[in-house]
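Q: What would this complex look like in 3D?
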Amino acid sequence: QLPVHALSSASDKYPKPQGVAFTYGTAGFRTKGDTLESTLSRIGILAVLRSKKLNGQTIGVMITASHNPAIDNGAKLVDPRGEMLDASWEHYATLLANAETTSELLKVLTGLIPELKIDWTKPSRVVFGRDTRPSGEALVKALKAGLEAMGCDAPMDMGITTTPCLHYMVKGSNLKQEAQIKYGVPSEQGYVQKLATAFTKLMKGKTPASPLIVDCANGVGAVALAKLAPLISDILPIRLLCTNTSDASALNHSCGADYVKTNQKPPPAVQEVMEKGQRACSLDGDADRVVYYYLNPDDGKFRLLDGDKIATLAAGFIGDLVKQAGLSDTLKIGVVQTAYANGSSTQYLQHNGLPVRCVPTGVKHLHHAAERYNIGVYFEANGHGTVLFSEETIDILNAHEPRSPGQETATQHLLCLVDLINQAVGDAISDFLMVEVILAHKRWGPVEWDQGYEDLPNRLVKVNVKNRFAFKTQDAERRLVEPKGLQERVDAIVNKFEKGRSFVRPSGTEDCVRVYAEASTRVGADELAAQVATLVS
Ligand code: 16G
Ligand code: ZN
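A: Here is my prediction, written as structure tokens for the whole assembly.
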């Protein structure tokens, strides 16, 4: 059954580079773009297997390296409901990518098909897209070679698109016709239209907002916003900055969400035009992550409104709508964070009666935990996140018979939010539109939003170690179990600092260990991070 001949020639055309080991990690494969062709051809093979295994449902492949420099690239698979590839298959991705030769690849495949109980007669459907990186084109070619060799039925090329748009596509493609009509047309145009319509409905009767600055990281977000922004310009004027996608070296360079979060300052291009009190946000290179910020009207100081601030804003607002709709006994809201969430944000949420769960770093962990609530709000501090409404919740909202005009309006707002907020994965654009809706409804500017709680000073440091795999964690990465005895020594240091908290975890994307620390003062946080880092290195 295995098309040995076609697979051999595809594999010969894209030989695996020697002496490189690929790993399908937290964000799929990620490394220098020019080393990834063989990996992409094999992702093509795996995508077909995954689709056949799931009865011909559409699988997605996204080619991107997100916030990394332009020279990097990467790829990840998207499962039928628009979520990340099931963790149990990550291992097969790594296995295929590391087969040294064509014959080894065929051997691995020959073993996998019976092991995974794949019915070869099933159809396979795959949709793929890429960000603006120059290596993307060659990687698409390699991917197609793998897909074709496996006899994939007409794979769909979305061209240059954002990661969340690809996830939206995959989810939409797998819906039955009736559900699809409600969801929206599975195409880029369909997605843009869906967001614009929901946003327009939610902003009805609200005074047009003051202009929002959006830093597109010189990436694909600029392409997407060039289509969306004109549709909503009379409700929300958007000033697009860092939109240069023709100069590859500009991507994520001195701009973007990661720059802002890491350097705790606006990108130079934003700084130049930003006025005190004006709100701005920065996307990352594939537009699945967003952070807000502004300059304090009094002293001009930079103030970051990160993923934690977005989560608290969203959870508070949605919680109020649920109450106003008369559904607070029926619909339970929960917030999911990681260990990186600022301690103040967690305290603030708990104080406001919202249950909070902490899970390991990485979107897939947050997403799965958020699915357990009627309404699950999840954000990483770095700006990855979204709000999930369960199927049951959507049914309850649709069937709800409001007892007052107030209940009616709140219910309609909640249903519009389901459309505005990407239900497959976090979307920087959809997320900032949600923030804009909330600010407009509350008549808040960034200052009022920021007033909820004050972030504890914090510090993140990277420590190079001999073997990061020697560091094993538990309790959502908050405690080390190995190397033995190290956690006790971390605890002893932490105890010396007021409001001190610190944890050590191996990175899932780089060869290093990360140390996070927070304390009641700036000096304290820096000192705590430095002491724990010394202990680890
Ligand atoms: C990946 C994750 C991101 C996480 C980061 C942590 C996805 C789509 N991306 O980029 O959520 O914050 O890894 O990186 O899951 P680290 O393990 O190197 O600290
Ligand atoms: Zn990203």
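A: To summarize the key features: Residues 26-27, 361-363, 380, 382, 384, 507-510, 514 surround 16G (ligand 1) (CB under 6 Å). The chain has a mean pLDDT of 97.
Q: Very helpful, thank you.
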